[in-house]
Write a structure and sequence with these properties.
flat, 5-stranded mixed beta sheet, about 240 residues, 6 helices, alpha+beta, two-stranded antiparallel sheet
């Protein structure tokens, strides 16, 4: 149980941005035994004391800092710069650091790609940063890029610094194709299409789909409303 407690404390420090934190534990049947391993063992063998005294030693160490965020996009060149700016802006909001929204030259190559940000003093809270992978994907869906996939890798330079590297694939804009209604037997199709408000050729966004489903549910005419995108995962499908 004590070993498990040590791991939980270490994990708490890791999540708070202190990956180098060291935690040890001592236990004895009397307070004096906490300062001497030999005494603690002797007291335990002698069955001295009625309880168990536990002391944790915690050295949090230096904070782990996220020193750079790098985006790598496989979109056409004209689309790359504005999309990088939007994604860095979203990262800035997710991680609460305004500096992430400001593109900087790549410190390695010196190039101004618009896809690199350098926060000033951002704790690398591992769980929070890792979660941005899915949040960026959701953000891209809201921007009519539902086929986008986001890979994330954290590179540790060994000095308590981490570089967050994101690779974005398939982030092309998708438009809405045909709208097919199934399972309806009583309501006129024109009423459903009017409430859905989904027009072929419009950008396909998660917000538009959610709004369409909400409007249909609010009519009270249906027990359930489900929206499926059968062609969404097909890499060979044409936009729409």
């Amino acid at each position: 149980q004590l070993a498990s407690d040590v791991e939980r404390i270490r994990d708490a420090y890791r999540r708070a941005g202190y990956r180098a934190a060291a935690v040890t534990v001592e236990a004895a049947t009397t307070p004096d035994g906490l300062d001497s391993g030999a005494l603690a063992a002797g007291l335990a063998l002698a069955d001295a004391g009625e309880g168990l005294y536990v002391r944790f030693h915690i050295v949090e160490g230096p904070p782990t800092l996220m020193i750079r965020a790098v985006l790598e996009l496989d979109v056409p060149e004209p689309d790359q710069l504005p999309l990088c700016g939007r994604l860095l802006g979203e990262l800035s909001q997710e991680l609460g650091d305004p500096e992430l929204a400001i593109p900087k030259p790549d410190p390695v190559t010196g190039k101004k790609t618009g896809c690199v940000a350098i926060p000033k003093h951002l704790l690398y809270k591992e769980d929070d940063v890792t979660a941005t992978r899915d949040r960026l994907r959701d953000f891209l869906f809201k921007k009519a890029r539902p086929r986008a996939l986001v890979d994330f890798e954290a590179a540790d330079d060994g000095n308590g610094h981490v570089i967050a590297h994101y690779k974005v694939h398939g982030a092309t804009v998708v438009t809405l194709g045909r709208v097919v209604v199934r399972g309806n037997f009583h309501t006129h199709l024109s009423i459903i299409e009017r409430e859905l408000r989904l027009q072929p050729g419009e950008p396909l966004t998660s917000d538009a789909l959610a709004e369409g489903a909400r409007h249909l549910r609010n009519t009270g005419l249906f027990d359930a409303v489900n929206i499926d995108l059968p062609d969404l995962c097909s890499a060979d499908s044409a936009p729409g």
